Automatic annotation (TrEMBL):
Belongs to the ABC transporter superfamily. InterPro entries: AAA+_ATPase, ABC_transporter-like_ATP-bd, ABC_transporter-like_CS, ABC_transpr_TagH-like, Bact_Polysacc_Export_ATP-bd, P-loop_NTPase. PANTHER family: TEICHOIC ACIDS EXPORT ATP-BINDING PROTEIN TAGH. The keyword Iron-sulfur does not apply. It comes from Sessilibacter corallicola. Gene3D superfamilies: P-loop containing nucleotide triphosphate hydrolases (3.40.50.300). Residues 6-226 form the ABC transporter domain. It comes from the Bacteria. The keyword Transport applies. This is ABC transporter domain-containing protein. Keywords: ATP-binding, Nucleotide-binding, Transport.
Length: 228
């Protein structure tokens, strides 16, 4: 686990907050520095509002930093999987899947050929032909997870995604993640569940007020975090 795939150097990100006539900068990520290595599962922990989801959005290149540098190994593709998935609600599940796969570098032909696997994994059957606006949140999660499994991005970003769906789907997604943990794929996982963190993560990054409070082996960092 020595090949660097991504690196943050003194990264800062501020959101603008408008209060009446005034607008101020709210630094959500501050001077954040860490490296991510190919094939590792890095867990991200921290209190509510610490900046964990924002960090995933920065890695996915959905938002840009106001300060510092983010280095990605050339051609590295990261995919964010979160409950607030960026689906187009008017399009069908199948069309959303094709669109996501194409964004992640597959050709349209390849993307179309993966639909039957997505159908099998998600168990959405004919629902895949209906607009995503008609899906329950669990069904959206199934679709998102199934797309991510087929897309095999270099970096899979999971934001509190392991406790979603019904019991059967939780079991299925956790089995799939176990396979990923033993593969070359890199994962960054945000979770408030100690069980999930211990089960999957090699290292943990502890974020406090948007900055790196500690990073290191999972058991050690979790012990320190729980002492607080
Ligand atoms: N679009 C936005 N505009 C303004 N402030 C935002 C925006 N998105 C997030 N924030 C603020 O940034 C801070 C960090 O949010 P973030 O969602 O990254 O936290 P988190 O660590 O993932 O929290 P949680 O554990 O509650 O999910 C919060 O204070 C939040 O209110």
């Amino acid at each position: 686990m020595s090949e660097k795939t991504l690196s943050f150097e003194n990264v800062g990100l501020a959101y603008r907050r408008n209060v009446g006539f005034w607008s101020s900068k709210n630094w959500v990520i501050n001077n954040l520095t860490f490296d991510l290595y190919k094939g590792e599962v890095l867990g991200v922990i921290g209190k509510n509002g610490a900046g964990k989801s924002t960090l995933l959005r920065l890695i996915a290149d959905i938002v840009k930093p106001n300060q510092g540098d983010i280095w990605r190994k050339p051609k590295t593709r990261a995919q964010l999987l979160t409950l607030g998935l960026g689906f187009n609600n008017q399009l069908s599940g199948a069309d959303n899947a094709i669109m996501s796969l194409v964004i992640l570098g597959k050709s349209i032909k390849e993307a179309k050929s993966l639909i039957s696997n997505i159908k099998d994994f998600s168990e959405l059957d004919d629902l895949l032909n209906y607009p995503v606006s008609t899906y329950s949140s669990g069904e959206k999660a199934r679709l998102g997870f199934a797309i991510a499994i087929q897309a095999k991005p270099d970096i899979l970003l999971l934001d509190e995604m392991l406790g979603v769906g019904d019991k059967d789907f939780q079991k299925k997604s956790s089995q799939e993640l176990k396979k990923i943990v033993n593969s070359e794929q890199t994962v960054v996982l945000v979770s408030h569940s100690n069980v999930t963190l211990k089960q999957f993560c090699h290292r943990l990054l502890w974020i406090e007020n948007g900055t790196n409070k500690a990073i290191g082996p999972c058991d050690h960092i979790l012990k320190e975090y729980l002492k607080k």
